[in-house]
Specification:
six-stranded mixed sheet, 3 helices
Length: 257
């Protein structure tokens, strides 16, 4: 499974720092600055490749327990390391913002996260830091990544969908049902293109029909029922399944015959 990637864009010489352990995450930036910049240090203290340069280093450290204790921590979420200046930064739940404002993650980044160079993807609620995915945006061809993770280089024109890091869902069941009846459907989770038994909370929605159960706590495939009370031949029921911050991952249409 691809655990990281980075894009190369034009900009200033800013290096990214990302050290990932199972229960510890250290992330931040190292910016090349003039010789007399306050608080700067020798570049070679960070890496031998920066010998002879001065860098201003700003990092943020989280333990896994601290990160999971955040009120906005959820499974199936994208995060960015957002900084308003070199000394004030924190991880932001980008999925939460895109859901509340009904905008795409790409637009959210353009509106307020031009300086968010490090992105993280949380697939499960029990994921540790090494189980999460990461993307780093490099501002120039001289920018470097200082990390214990391997990264795959992508050009600016190439696109890496965050969904590659997330579990997916499949809905199965009848394509048609009679009026005033009940039918059984199954929601099956997949991760890295294989069935998964890891715990996931799935939200169900419907248009038309009656759905008695609107939340599933999956540890593998699980069934649920939908009723067609009051519907007539020619009507349709739409069933949607998704996650708290990524609703309607999959949909299924059921015709009333």
């Amino acid at each position: 499974m691809l655990r990281g990637s980075f894009n190369v864009n034009r900009g200033n010489t800013v290096h990214s720092i990302l050290q990932v352990e199972t229960d510890r995450l250290l992330a931040g930036l190292a910016t090349e600055v003039p010789e007399d910049y306050p608080g700067a240090s020798e570049g070679e203290d960070l890496d031998a490749s920066l010998a002879g340069k001065r860098v201003y280093v700003s990092t943020l450290e989280y333990t896994l327990a601290q990160f999971r204790a955040r009120s906005d921590f959820k499974a199936v979420t994208a995060w960015d390391l957002c900084s308003r200046n070199v000394d004030v930064m924190d991880w932001r739940n980008l999925s939460g913002r895109t859901l509340s404002e009904r905008i795409s993650s790409g637009l959210a980044m353009r509106l307020g996260s031009e300086d968010a160079l490090i992105h993280m993807y949380v697939p499960f609620g029990d994921s540790d830091f090494q189980d999460m995915g990461y993307k780093i945006i490099l501002l120039s061809g001289q920018s470097r990544i200082f990390s214990n993770l391997p990264f795959v280089e992508l050009t600016h024109e190439q696109h890496l969908s965050p969904t590659l890091f997330f579990p997916e869902l499949e809905l199965s069941g009848p394509d048609a049902m009679p009026p005033d009846s009940a039918a059984e459907f199954m929601c099956s989770p997949f991760y890295e293109k294989a069935p998964t038994m890891r715990a996931l909370q799935v939200d169900l929605e419907n248009i038309n029909g009656y759905l008695p159960k609107t939340r599933l706590n999956l540890t593998g495939p699980e069934t649920f029922k939908i009723h067609s009370f009051g519907l007539e031949p020619g009507d349709e029921i739409k069933i949607k399944a998704g996650f708290r911050y990524r609703p309607a991952v999959v949909e299924k249409i059921v015709r009333i015959m």
